[in-house]
Structures are given as structure tokens and as C-alpha cells.
């Protein structure tokens, strides 16, 4: 599967002071520390409260999805492919029987046509 990257959000990505205007260094440092600590603890608290219930929900969802895929979708696709092979052979036989001679005759009929281009000066 493809790698799924988690978003990396830093203070500078959210709060970016433009060139020419900056807050006091102390305010900037406290703001960075407050942002980082509150983001860290908010994530930890939310993951502690919601992590287990959501993991149960996602586990059930992917179990049902896997069940449907294994027991319904794949067998339907395989049976369809098997049935279509029979029709494919019949269709191919009809095309080769009826159409091939017609197009071969047309090809031989038009094979002697020569086209030359002349440029008038």
C-alpha cells in the first residue's frame, strides 16, 4: 500500500508574522511554547478519550468491508469473468467467421489503389 503521512503542524505554519513586523521576542517564545504544549496535550487527551471507541468502530468497519470483499465481491467478479469467457469465445468465432472474410476481400480490393501527391508550381 501507499504510505499515509500524518500532517505535521508547527507554530510557524499556523502563525506566520510577515517581514517588517514582529512581536517581542518574549511574546513569540511564550506563544510558541503555549501552542506546542496545548497541541500536544489536546492530542493526548482526545486520543485517550476517543482512541479506543474509534478503533473499535474502524475495526468493525474494516472487518465488514473485508468480509464483503472476500465473500461477495471477489466471487461475483470471478464468476462474471468465467461466464464472459464463454461469450467471448462465441463472439470471437462469429467475428472470425463472418467479418474476417469481408474485410479481407475489401483489403484486397483496395490494395492496388495508389495515391500520389503532386505540387503544382
Automatic annotation (TrEMBL):
<comment type="similarity">
    <text>Belongs to the caveolin family.</text>
</comment>
<dbReference type="InterPro" id="IPR001612">
    <property type="entry name" value="Caveolin"/>
</dbReference>
<dbReference type="GO" id="GO:0042383">
    <property type="term" value="C:sarcolemma"/>
</dbReference>
<keyword id="KW-1003">Cell membrane</keyword>
<dbReference type="InterPro" id="IPR018361">
    <property type="entry name" value="Caveolin_CS"/>
</dbReference>
<dbReference type="GO" id="GO:0005901">
    <property type="term" value="C:caveola"/>
</dbReference>
<dbReference type="GO" id="GO:0005925">
    <property type="term" value="C:focal adhesion"/>
</dbReference>
<keyword id="KW-0472">Membrane</keyword>
<dbReference type="GO" id="GO:0060090">
    <property type="term" value="F:molecular adaptor activity"/>
</dbReference>
<dbReference type="GO" id="GO:0070836">
    <property type="term" value="P:caveola assembly"/>
</dbReference>
<dbReference type="GO" id="GO:0000139">
    <property type="term" value="C:Golgi membrane"/>
</dbReference>
<keyword id="KW-0832">Ubl conjugation</keyword>
<keyword id="KW-0333">Golgi apparatus</keyword>
<keyword id="KW-1017">Isopeptide bond</keyword>
<dbReference type="GO" id="GO:0042391">
    <property type="term" value="P:regulation of membrane potential"/>
</dbReference>
<dbReference type="GO" id="GO:0044325">
    <property type="term" value="F:transmembrane transporter binding"/>
</dbReference>
<dbReference type="Pfam" id="PF01146">
    <property type="entry name" value="Caveolin"/>
</dbReference>
<dbReference type="GO" id="GO:0051480">
    <property type="term" value="P:regulation of cytosolic calcium ion concentration"/>
</dbReference>
<dbReference type="GO" id="GO:0030154">
    <property type="term" value="P:cell differentiation"/>
</dbReference>
<protein>
    <recommendedName>
        <fullName>Caveolin</fullName>
    </recommendedName>
</protein>
<comment type="function">
    <text>May act as a scaffolding protein within caveolar membranes. Interacts directly with G-protein alpha subunits and can functionally regulate their activity. May also regulate voltage-gated potassium channels. Plays a role in the sarcolemma repair mechanism of both skeletal muscle and cardiomyocytes that permits rapid resealing of membranes disrupted by mechanical stress. Mediates the recruitment of CAVIN2 and CAVIN3 proteins to the caveolae.</text>
</comment>
Amino acid at each position: 500500500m501507499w504510505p499515509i503521512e500524518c500532517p505535521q503542524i508547527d507554530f510557524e505554519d499556523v502563525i506566520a508574522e510577515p517581514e517588517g513586523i514582529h512581536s517581542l521576542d518574549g511574546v513569540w517564545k511564550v506563544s510558541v511554547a503555549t501552542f506546542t504544549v496545548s497541541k500536544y496535550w489536546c492530542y493526548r487527551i482526545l486520543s485517550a478519550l476517543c482512541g479506543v471507541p474509534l478503533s473499535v468502530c474502524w475495526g468493525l468497519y474494516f472487518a465488514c468491508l473485508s468480509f464483503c470483499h472476500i465473500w461477495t465481491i471477489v466471487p461475483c467478479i470471478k464468476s462474471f469473468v468465467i461466464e464472459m469467457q464463454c461469450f467471448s469465445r462465441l463472439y470471437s468465432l462469429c467475428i472470425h467467421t463472418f467479418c474476417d472474410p469481408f474485410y479481407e476481400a475489401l483489403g484486397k480490393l483496395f490494395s492496388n489503389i495508389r495515391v500520389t501527391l503532386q505540387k503544382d508550381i
